Amino acid sequence: MTASLLYPVNNGFRRDIKLDGLWKFKFDPKSEGEEFNWQDGLKDTLDMPVPSSFNDFFTKKDEREYTGDFWYETDFFVPEEWENRRVSLRFDAATHRATVYVNGNKIISHEGGFLPFNADLKQAVSFGKNNKVVVKINNELSRTTLPCGDTVTLKNGKKMVRPFFDFYNYSGLNRSVHLIALPDESVEDYSVAYELDGEDAIVRYNVMTNGIHDVSVALYDEDGAKVAGATGRAGGLRVKKAHLWNVLDAYLYQLRIEIVDNDKLLDAYHEEIGIRVVEIKGTEILINQKPVYLKGFGRHEDSDFAGRGFNLNAEKRDFELMKWIGANSFRTSHYPYDEAVYRMADREGFLIIDEVPAVGFKMAAASFLGGLNQSFFDGEWINDLQVNHLAQIKELIRRDKNHASVIAWSLMNEPDTVTDSSVPYFKAVFDATVGLDPQNRPRTFALSEDDTITTSKVLEFPDLYLLNRYPGWYHTWGYEISDGEQNLRDEMDQWKEEGINKPIVFSEFGADTEPGLHKLPSIMWSEEYQVECVQMFNRVFDSYEFIKGEQIWNFADFQTVEGNMRVNGNKKGVFTRQRQPKALAFYLKKRWSDLPLDY
Ligand code: GCB
Fold this sequence. Notes:
The chain is an alpha/beta fold. The protein contains nine helices and 30 strands. The chain has three domains: 15-182, Sandwich (Jelly Rolls), CATH 2.60.120; 187-273, Immunoglobulin-like (Sandwich), CATH 2.60.40.10; 290-594, TIM Barrel. It has an eight-stranded parallel β-barrel with strand order 23-24-25-26-27-28-29-30. It starts with 14 loop residues before the first strand and ends in a 5-residue tail after the last helix.
């Protein structure tokens, strides 16, 4: 059974004990673990840090590239005084699918490597004793998984993934694991939505609990003063002269939710929320009714040693660099990030386009790594894929719906949109996700270069257009870049002539660049060429008023599968993988610091 997915906290009613540290680890290449009762305990193990991806620790290629089942184990103590509590284990992310055993009993399975799940432990644990958790994880890819790919078996019997995407298939317990204790009757979930009324704001709230007792809700300002309160599971809080959450100027109220039995408190959950409204009107993106121009990045969770293992230190550095360079936004390309990232963005006033791991929905994405040419949405895998896709959109919105920083949902990256069979798929996904978000944020997806105003069949669906474009790099490159600029202008002219009435944000553009490579005049891969390429895009952006944002690809260099298109990963970073600036960073800092918010 899935328990509450509220972000874990410690307070007078709730306990959150992180089980991070060294766990036991073992590969299971023959998938024989269950048969030999590995769920009861692992033998002949290695040590593995949690959270981390296992891949880059190893010195043997068979281990780094390992594809298949692998297992983790650790012990945890459950205090005796928790006997009447709701005890659960929360995995912030297990990439890509996991089955969890506690004291030998299977307690939960979960599909999807970037979203949390929480297993109720009540029946499975011994109180006042040590307990054992064993987790079987699998990192294979298929055409029904998010992200998509193939898993092949080499002639030597080893399995290998062929991702239909351009980031390394880092695997493992990539985020923290929590042992949680909640009161018997507790808050399960809540949502907030906002309306502005002159100088006031109304916070519409909804609280879900697992019991019958009354709920009370109150809002406190940053000085700790109570500004509004109400009782009942649903209602509205009027905040007089509301202090709004604004771009790079965050203001957070504290929402305090309590369950009360007459005078007795049964549970309390406090979280910071930012009051702001997001709208798309014509070609404008409005935050609190004011236009905003997005400046920022597509990013990855990717760093040395731990791969996609959440790294708070790298994240801190990334936020400092994003502030330094004058960015105000990013897309969580190409999967939901650790929840700590959204909390940091909430506090800093960054805007997030929140993406599900729906990447690789296109056979041409496979051709990037070796070539297939057919329509993706005709495949016999489509029904199963859609079930997984919708489940993950729901899980994402459930997890991130209350973050002020999240301003839009990206439901896919570069899917096939030019074939007739894409239309029913898009319709089904957009229909099934209407109203899931209490704040009704815009829904969108990133369009590849194949998808233009003349070729794409699904342009009615997104509320704003995200365009990924690579003139200057994947075509019309080098000395031909002037043709690239002209072609991009021709494309934008077409949108204009068709009377575009939604904003366009460039969600990807850029050039691979080897840090330290200089050449005058420029040559591709040099730091000079990266600057010239981005300057070319900027000239185009500055010529069309319906372009409402630029999120360059990528914030930092990142690891990909090896191949003849990549030199130790994707080098389109404005910063190196070690988060040091390339020449482009100084150019962008100047441009972005000079651009007004409502550019
Ligand atoms: C894209 C993809 C992104 C790649 C990028 C590139 O269109 O969305 O995942 O990394 O191009 O650099 O090729």
